[in-house]
C-alpha cells in the first residue's frame, strides 16, 4: 500500500525471525515498562486454520496502528486440505509461501529498505501485475482460495492477472479443490469484499466470469430439491420453470448480464448529464440481488439442520444468500424484497412501454384522472403502484434499477450477449475496466444503446408517475387502522388468511381515497365484511 502511495494505513504486520509473536510482545511490554512509559497491552490470536490463522499471532495497538507480531514461517500442503503444516522459516521461505508476489515484500526497519526476496514483487507492483511467487497451478492447488484473492487484488488495484495465473484459475483441478478444500464461509468473505468495492461491475464480477470462477461462487443446489411456486418439482414435466435456466452456470451468466446491464444504464444516465437512476445504488446488496436474480420464483425445500422436522420451503435466492454467500438473514430477506419489487416494477415498465407505443403520446402530458374509482396516471393506477411501493419500501431504487436491467435483456438478441455487454462496458468505462478483460470486438453497441436508452426513459417515466400520484412517501406512511383497531369492530374474523385480506382491503381503500379518515375506512370495512361485525 505504501509503495502505491496510500497513506491511510492502520494495520502493520511485523515479521520475526527468531521468536514467536507472543514472546516478542511479552518482551516488548516488559521493556516498555522498564523505560517508565505508559503500559502496553496485547492479546494473542490463537491458531485457527478455518479462519486462515495458520500460526499464533500477537496483536497490540501502538498509537493509531494495529500491529500484528508473527514469526517467519514455511508451509507444506497435502492434497486433501488447504490448511498447511507450519514450520518456522527464513525470509525467503516466508516470501515464497505468500499468495502473490506483491504481497511478499518486506520493509526492513533497521535498514529502512524494501526487501524483495522473490525478485519479482517490486517489478510486478510497478508493472501492475498480479502473479504468484511459485508456479501458479501448484499455488492454487495448495490453497485454491488464492484464486479469489488474486481476483480481489487485481480488481482493487486494477492490475492485470498473469497469463499462467489465469490458466490456473480456469483449471478443473483448482475448481474441484475450491469446492472441496475451502469452506463456503471463506469463499463468501472474499466475494463480499469484492462486491463492496465500487468497481465491482466493471472489474471483479466480469473477471470472475472470464476466469470461470463465478459459477463456483453462485453455487446452486441440485434440481431434485427445487420446485416452482406451485409446488411442482423442477424435474417434473409440468413445472413452470425451465430447468435449463436453473444451475450454477446459467445463474452466473444471467447474474453477470444483469450487473453489466444495470451498470450500463447508470453510465448512460451520466453520459446524458442526468442523475443516476434511483440515486446511489452502487452497493453490495444490489449486486447480490442481481447475481441471484435467476433463482427468483424457485423454491428450495430445506430441512432445519440437526432436526427431524419436515422440510420447509425457502425462496431459492434466499437459500443461496444464506448458505452459499453467507449474507446473513436480514440481507437475504432484503435481496428477496429487491427481486420481488423488480418483478412487479418490470410489469409496470412493460405497461408504460405498451401505452407509449400504442398512443404515441408523451408521458409528460399525462394528467391524473379518476378511472374506476381509482386515481390513475397514464396506464398506471394508484392502488397498483402504491401496493408495490409499500412492499418494496426502502429498496425501491435498487428494485427499479434491476427491473430496468431486466427490460434491457428481455428482447431476443443474436450473438453472445455477455461478450457484447462486456465490450460495451469497456467502451463506456473510460479505462476503469480490468486490463485482463479485453474487448472481443463483437459489435452491436448501437443495438444495446437503443435498448438502454428506452429502458431508462421508461424508468424515468415511472419515477414521474410516483410523484404525479403523490406516492413518494407511501412506503413510510402507516395505515390508519392497526390490526387491533380492526378487531374491535370486526370481532368474528375467522382464523386463517382472511385477516390478511382485510388488511389489504384497508390499504386498497386508503390508496384509492388518500384523504380518507379512520372512520371512513372503518365504515367501509364494516360494510364489506358485515358478517364479521
Summarize the structure in words.
A hairpin with a 2-residue loop joins strand 14 (368-371) and strand 15 (374-377). The strands form six sheets. The protein has a four-stranded mixed β-sheet with strand order 1-4-3-2, with helices on one face. It has helices spanning 21-34, 91-96, 121-127, 136-142, 145-157, 163-169, 172-181, 184-196, 204-210, 214-217, 248-271, 284-291, 316-323, 329-359, 382-392, 396-410, 417-428, 445-468, 483-489, 498-512, 518-528, and strands at residues 11-16, 42-45, 57-62, 65-71, 73-78, 81-88, 106-108, 113-115, 129-130, 160-161, 226-228, 298-302, 312-315, 368-371, 374-377, 380-381. The protein is globular, with a radius of gyration of 28 Å. With 533 residues, the protein is α+β, with helices and mostly antiparallel strands. The chain starts with 10 loop residues before the first strand and ends in a 5-residue tail after the last helix. It is 48% helix and 13% strand. The mean pLDDT is 88. The chain has 21 helices and 16 strands.
Quaternary form: single chain
Radius of gyration: 28 Å
- Physical arrangement of strands within the biggest beta sheet: 1-4-3-2
- The end-to-end span amounts to 71 Å
Strand coverage percent: 5-15%
How many separate helices? 21
Structural class: alpha+beta
Based on Cα principal axes, name the global outline: globular
The main sheet comes to: 4 strands, mixed
**Low-confidence runs:** none
Overall helicity: 40-55%
| Average pLDDT | 88
Please count the beta strands (DSSP E, at least 2 residues each): 16
Amino acid at each position: 500500500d505504501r509503495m502505491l502511495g496510500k497513506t491511510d494505513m492502520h494495520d502493520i504486520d511485523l515479521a520475526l525471525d527468531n521468536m514467536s509473536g507472543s514472546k516478542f510482545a511479552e518482551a516488548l511490554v516488559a521493556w516498555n515498562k522498564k523505560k517508565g512509559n505508559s503500559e502496553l497491552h496485547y492479546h494473542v490470536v490463537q491458531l485457527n486454520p478455518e479462519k486462515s490463522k495458520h500460526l499464533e499471532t500477537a496483536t497490540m495497538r501502538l498509537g493509531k496502528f494495529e500491529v500484528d507480531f508473527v514469526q517467519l514461517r514455511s508451509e507444506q500442503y497435502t492434497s486433501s486440505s488447504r490448511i498447511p503444516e507450519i514450520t518456522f522459516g527464513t525470509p525467503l521461505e516466508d516470501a515464497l509461501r505468500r499468495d502473490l508476489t506483491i504481497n511478499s515484500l518486506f520493509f526492513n526497519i533497521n535498514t529502512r529498505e524494501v526487501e524483495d526476496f522473490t525478485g519479482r514483487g517490486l517489478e510486478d507492483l510497478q508493472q501492475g501485475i498480479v502473479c504468484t511467487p511459485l508456479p501458479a497451478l501448484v499455488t492454487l492447488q495448495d490453497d485454491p482460495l488464492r484464486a479469489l484473492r488474486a481476483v480481489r487484488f487485481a480488481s482493487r488495484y486494477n492490475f492485470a492477472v498473469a497469463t499462467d495465473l489465469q490458466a490456473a484459475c480456469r483449471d478443473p483441478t483448482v475448481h474441484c479443490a475450491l469446492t472441496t478444500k475451502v469452506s463456503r464461509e471463506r469463499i463468501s468473505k472474499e466475494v463480499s469484499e469484492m462486491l463492496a468495492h465500487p468497481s465491482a461491475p466493471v472489474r471483479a464480477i466480469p473477471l470472475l466470469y472470464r476466469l470461470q470462477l463465478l459459477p463456483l461462487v453462485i453455487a446452486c443446489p441440485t434440481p431434485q430439491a427445487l420446485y416452482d411456486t406451485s409446488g411442482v418439482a423442477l424435474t417434473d414435466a409440468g413445472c413452470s420453470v425451465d430447468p435449463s435456466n436453473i444451475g450454477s452456470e446459467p445463474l452466473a451468466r444471467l447474474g453477470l448480464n444483469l450487473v453489466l446491464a444495470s451498470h450500463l444504464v447508470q453510465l448512460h444516465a451520466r453520459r446524458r448529464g442526468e442523475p443516476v437512476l434511483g440515486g446511489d445504488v452502487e452497493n453490495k446488496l444490489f449486486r447480490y440481488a442481481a447475481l441471484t436474480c435467476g433463482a427468483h420464483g424457485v423454491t428450495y425445500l430445506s430441512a432445519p439442520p440437526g432436526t427431524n422436522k419436515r422440510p420447509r420451503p425457502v425462496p431459492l435466492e434466499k437459500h443461496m444468500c444464506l448458505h452459499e454467500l453467507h449474507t446473513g438473514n436480514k440481507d437475504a430477506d432484503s435481496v428477496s424484497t429487491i427481486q420481488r419489487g423488480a418483478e412487479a416494477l418490470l410489469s409496470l415498465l412493460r405497461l408504460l412501454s405498451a401505452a407509449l407505443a400504442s398512443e404515441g403520446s408523451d408521458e409528460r402530458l399525462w394528467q391524473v384522472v379518476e378511472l374506476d374509482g381509482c386515481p390513475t396516471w397514464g396506464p398506471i393506477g394508484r392502488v397498483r403502484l402504491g401496493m408495490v411501493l409499500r412492499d418494496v419500501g426502502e429498496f425501491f431504487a435498487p428494485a427499479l434499477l434491476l427491473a430496468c436491467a431486466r427490460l434491457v435483456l428481455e428482447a431476443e438478441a443474436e450473438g453472445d450477449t455477455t461478450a457484447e455487454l462486456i465490450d460495451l462496458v469497456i467502451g463506456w468505462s473510460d479505462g476503469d475496466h480490468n486490463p485482463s478483460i479485453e474487448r472481443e470486438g463483437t459489435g452491436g453497441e448501437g443495438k444495446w444503446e437503443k435498448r438502454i436508452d428506452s429502458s431508462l426513459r421508461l424508468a424515468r417515466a415511472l419515477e414521474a408517475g410516483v410523484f404525479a400520484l403523490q406516492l413518494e412517501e407511501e412506503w413510510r406512511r402507516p395505515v390508519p387502522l392497526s390490526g387491533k383497531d380492526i378487531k374491535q369492530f370486526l370481532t368474528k374474523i375467522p382464523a386463517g388468511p382472511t385477516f390478511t385480506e382485510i388488511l389489504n382491503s384497508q390499504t386498497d381503500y386508503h390508496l384509492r381515497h388518500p384523504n380518507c379518515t379512520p372512520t371512513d375506512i372503518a365504515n367501509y370495512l364494516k360494510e364489506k365484511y358485515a358478517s364479521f361485525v
